[in-house]
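[Automated response] Your request has been received and processed.

Submitted sequence:
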Amino acid sequence: GGVAVYARSNLDVRKIDVDKFCIDKHLKVCAILWKTSTTETIILNCYRAPSGDIEIFFNNIFGVLNFVFVPHINIVLTGDFNLDSSKQSRSMNECLVDLLSGFNLMPVVRWPTRVTQGTSTIIDHIFTNLTENSVITVIDNDISDHRTVLFQVN
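Generated structure:
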């Protein structure tokens, strides 16, 4: 799997180099800083392969967040973690939420993001400190075996 963040050409964005945190199968991550006249937002997109080591993933997510974290900047961490928050072991999910809450990031996806004939999982996540006035929509599409997750801040 690979990751990308796309932005319109008229937006003030710059790439943040987080390549040193990428370890094949365990974590792929990319990041941008988006500036407006009133705010700065770091957007990170990541992927963990289903066979990836969860400890390496946690350690490197912690590392990348330590690298980019600035208290007054908004953060949106999104991606396919291949960690089912609806069914995975409680301790694994608690570890992830605890780790990310240390950066004031809260989970906002509450509906299944991958549905097959026999399964319904929440493996595509968004963690953010922009929880007020935000809207999450999960919609079916014919593009992928995952549903589309839309995140809007009003």
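Summary generated for your ticket: Residues 54-68 form the longest helix (15 residues). Helices lie at 54-68, 90-101.
If you did not submit this request, please reply to this message.
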